[in-house]
Amino acid sequence: MAAVIGISLRGLCGLRQTVGRQVAVGTWLHSQMLSTSPISGQATGSPKIYEMRTYYVKPKAFAEFMQLTYDYIHLKADSNSKLNGYWTSDIGGLNEVTHIWEYDSYTEKMEAQKSLLQDETWVNNYRKKILKMLVKQDNLVMNPFPWFGVKPPLSIGGVYELRMYDLILGKKEQWEHRFIQGFFERCKLSEPVGVWFTEFGPINRVVMLWPYQSLDDRTKIRKEAQGLEEWVEAIRDCLPFEKKAFSKVLIPTQFSPWK
């Protein structure tokens, strides 16, 4: 993705800063598009697809639901569905679970789902039981942006912040161009495990998943990020293209591959 060099109104010094930043972004983008995603081993130019599911569980049934999931979730993984992470919601939603599944293609996803529904143990011992425990279910399918490959967290034992931004229809490219001007600078403090854009489900939605050692660690890093001029300017310039944004704090379960 070629960066478009804009002329700053801050004089020659500002122009040099803008040109330098955008050249760096263009170079970084080129290297990322040619690189391989650490988690999936595929070129980021031909990404896998990711399904994010959210289940809203009846409060009285939550403990039983989690035990059943712990006992039987491996059956879904055995059906050629790759579990990236499974979390419970701590802030921003109660009695909710969020899980992300990875597939090579839509065909693989449909075949995995068909195979799972033919598994009597899954259907009788898990699916039929947990459906009675749910208030509702949501899901969406998303693709990673080509300039950032999906990767597992660098450390284990923390919390995750799930951030979602609903964009104005037709403004994805404008938002993306401005966001990447500061994103790579922000990644020097900490990196997300993925940045996606929805394909099915709520459309025009950006999904980011940021791991932290703790909520205090998150507060510290975000405070430091406020001192990064490129990041602050990028976030400011993205605002006209966003309708709303929201976040949740997620805690990884003991059976979640991403801890």
UniProtKB/TrEMBL annotation:
InterPro entries: Dimeric_a/b-barrel, NIPSNAP, NipSnap_domain. Residues 50-147, 160-257 form the NIPSNAP domain. Pfam families: NIPSNAP. One of its GO terms (cellular component) is mitochondrion. GO terms for biological process: mitophagy. PANTHER family: NIPSNAP-RELATED, PROTEIN NIPSNAP HOMOLOG 3B. Belongs to the NipSnap family. This is NIPSNAP domain-containing protein. It comes from Pocillopora meandrina.
